[in-house]
Amino acid sequence: MKTTTLLCALFAGFLSGIECTRAGQTQEMLPVIESPPEKDWALILSVPMWAAGLNGDVGVGGFEPVGVDLPFYKIFDHLDMTAAATVELRHRRWGLIFDGLYLKMSGSGDTPGGVLSSVDVQLEQVLAEVALAYRVLEGEQGYLDLLAGARYVYLGTELNFQLDSGGVRRVSNDLSNRIVDGTVGRIQAGVREAVERAQAQIDALPPDAGDARREAIRSEVRSRVLQKAVEERALREIIRTVGDLTPVERELIRRKVEQSKEILAANRALARAMVEEKVASSVGAAAGKARARAAQAVDTAKKQLSKAIEKSIRDAVPERVSQSKSWVDPFVGFRGRLHLTESLYLSARGDIGGFGVGSDLAVNAFAGIGCQWSRRFSTDLGYRYLSMDYQKGGFQYDASTAGVFFGVNYEF
């Protein structure tokens, strides 16, 4: 019987229960199992082997995600261990499926930014699934089941960082120059504004006000600029500048720069020299010496900042960061089989889950071809795809595990 005629008979029998005829012969298709099979109960054991690769973004410990690309055809270069088994208990239309998978792999991830020479990733994945299956269609050409269940997921991730010493120095020097140059501009603007206000106050003093009053105004300017321009504006400028870096550089540096005493000290010296230069030049005092001190303070600040940032980077980069998470994803889906001959068949499964309960979204799909070697023994060869998008508590996993799938099935 041709496939088109069989499918027609299958749907016609399911929807209306009528008979479908072909070539003068009448065959009745069973849309569902209407009579008990030879055995009411069946136990099916499957041992799958999954040569799966990994592609996506993995982040732990609050660090920016690392891109990982381990193709399935290179999996044996990265696979440390794998084990899996599926048990299904069937009773007529109903089936109860238990599925388990353990996968451990390792490899190198992308190296974002300029401070790392390599990032090694180790991933341990455990999946434990229970699903209820209901057979809605069955005939000579195959069957269709609807699925609903829950999948327990455990992910353990470890990132190993290797610093690039030359890259650390380049990033530190570049960041130091950017911070100091930007800070100089902000301090000069603040000093200029404060000095102009101070000079206006001095000019407004009566002629007999005396030098002490004028010096008091200059001291107030020094104090105000050092407190405001340095401790508040300058440090905000540093953090803003850090925010312009690549994600990994920003995260590594930010953790230490905010509390760096060396950076505060360098900016205080810089601001002090700037204040002295502006105040001195505004009243005609030793402006040349003040400018020289300011220029020296700028150079000193750049060197101090560069050393402080380099130390901060080295302190902030751990050799190893690890984190694990576990959650449960509900899912719904289907599975089916279409017989091509008495021995060969096509099989497929698809389900979608997560829905924000565990993952934001989880997709699982399989398609392949199988061979029924005997009434009890069969094998499947195909391709399986599993993706999950999960983010919580500094842990991020937005990746897919996919590759060639081979299963051995035996019915008891």
Protein model, in words:
There is one protein chain. Helix 5 (247-257) crosses helix 7 (287-316). Helices cover 37% and strands 44% of the residues. The chain is elongated. The protein has helices at residues 3-16, 75-78, 165-204, 211-242, 247-257, 261-282, 287-316; strands at 20-22, 25-27, 41-59, 66-70, 79-91, 94-109, 116-139, 142-163, 320-339, 344-353, 361-372, 377-392, 395-411. By secondary structure, the protein is α+β, with helices and mostly antiparallel strands. The chain starts with a helix and ends with a strand. The strands form two sheets. A ten-stranded antiparallel barrel has the order 3-5-6-7-8-9-10-11-12-13.
Give the SSE map:
Blueprint: H1 3-16, E1 20-22, E2 25-27, E3 41-59, E4 66-70, H2 75-78, E5 79-91, E6 94-109, E7 116-139, E8 142-163, H3 165-204, H4 211-242, H5 247-257, H6 261-282, H7 287-316, E9 320-339, E10 344-353, E11 361-372, E12 377-392, E13 395-411
Antiparallel strand pairs: 1-2, 3-4, 3-5, 3-13, 5-6, 6-7, 7-8, 8-9, 9-10, 10-11, 11-12, 12-13
Helix pairs in contact: 3-4, 3-6, 3-7, 4-6, 5-7, 6-7
Describe the structure concisely.
This protein is of the alpha+beta class and 412 residues long. Helices cover 37% and strands 44% of the residues. The chain has helices spanning 3-16, 75-78, 165-204, 211-242, 247-257, 261-282, 287-316, and strands at residues 20-22, 25-27, 41-59, 66-70, 79-91, 94-109, 116-139, 142-163, 320-339, 344-353, 361-372, 377-392, 395-411.
